[in-house]
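Design review, sub-item: ligand-bound model
Attendees: FS, YL, KQ
YL presented the inputs for the adenosine-5'-triphosphate complex:
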Amino acid sequence: MPTYRSPAPVFTAPASAPDRGWLLRLVENLGGALGMTRPRPAETASDIAPAPPTASPREAALELLPDPVLLVEAADPNDLSGRRIAFANAAARELLRIPASGALVVSALRQPEMLEAIDESLFGGIESETLYEPRGAQEQIWRVRTVPLPGEGAPTLYGETTRMALVHFRDETDARRAEQMRVDFLANASHELRTPLASLSGFIETLRGHAKDDPEARDQFLRIMTAQAERMARLIDDLMSLSRIELNEHIRPLGSCDLSLAAMDVADTLRPLTADKGVKLDLHLMDRGEAVVAGDRDQITQVVQNLIDNALKYSPAGGAVRVEIVRGLTGDAAFAHGSKALTMANAGGGRLSLLTPDRAEPDDYVLLRVADQGPGMRREHLPRLAERFYRVEGQKSGQKLGTGLGLAIVKHIMNRHRGGMLVESAPTLGSTFAVYFPAAAR
Ligand SMILES: Nc1ncnc2c1ncn2[C@@H]1O[C@H](COP(=O)(O)OP(=O)(O)OP(=O)(O)O)[C@@H](O)[C@H]1O
Ligand SMILES: [Mg+2]
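KQ shared the predicted structure:
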């Protein structure tokens, strides 16, 4: 913590200021009562310098604001060390690690654009906006507005008037992050689409050129082109379905669905694939009506389909995929069910929740587990599996390259259903994915 020289006081304290912590406590009580949260309460309140006990009602009001606010003052435009912070509210003290008054503006805010904006407000009477990015472990971005305060100044010893400006910080970190995610998503989606498109263009060129009179090559190229076109169509379908799910994610689905029947349907449609690959599908389902969950039938079928599809895709020939349904579990029991976390961890893998539901009442879930004997994954991949377009490199998945959207879709559907999702996997030990849904009211 730097030390600050005490400047000439702007708000003079009465000699008998009884208790310097009163305003802070008032803020804490009022703030709590109003449900206000201070931005990033990283440290305890005792780390933040207390507010001056003599603050005017105006400062007491500023003190209560959840956004950081400063009053800065200066008399002489040429005197850099004369620009001082006359008042910093609790949020500003926490953000900038400064006392309630007296800090030098240059040392509290080291960014030249901000200092310039403050000068413009103080001496040019101009209102302006800048961005403030504190240096620290966590990336933060604040939008800062500086506004001149007319008629606030008091005359100094030399007769000049002190000028004042208000500096208001608004946290834009979340908005920026969301924006960044959107940009990344667009970049990823275009990249994923451009790859098959480039391959298609390449083959068209070849077919027009030297492969024109070679029927064998032509057939082979056309087969590849069909596969690429199908891949593009799949990508677009998945993207559309993801955006449809996201659009309704906050709306709880109506209706109910028998998880066993959904699993049976999916198993039937995948039968040709299992036969092709020589993979056995072991179903341990419940009787009709025993595993009914609250939710949208089509979406639930998609969850089951994506999980079993992955398990088959990554299974070696001759392997088995076990699909199991268990009911009557609490959220915690659903997460812990059948855990081999230690064995997995010892083999370089692990067990991880990809989605945890908020505490639901009644705490009654139906679990669907899909376990395979495939290559499994190392621990570091697990947290990223439900990210869009994430694929574990170097995995054999048969001829069809996946889009990397299957598990992202599962996660969004499970979130809409207020359910949970987890993965357990380790190299050579295979993978188990599980989802659990709130049971339908009986
Ligand atoms: N059962 C599994 N065994 C091993 N790896 C898996 C398994 N399931 C998923 N993965 C890994 O997770 C990645 C993401 O899976 P996801 O289902 O989202 O995409 P995908 O299967 O590649 O594509 P898509 O499902 O869209 O066809 C996969 O690319 C694969 O690397
Ligand atoms: Mg998949």
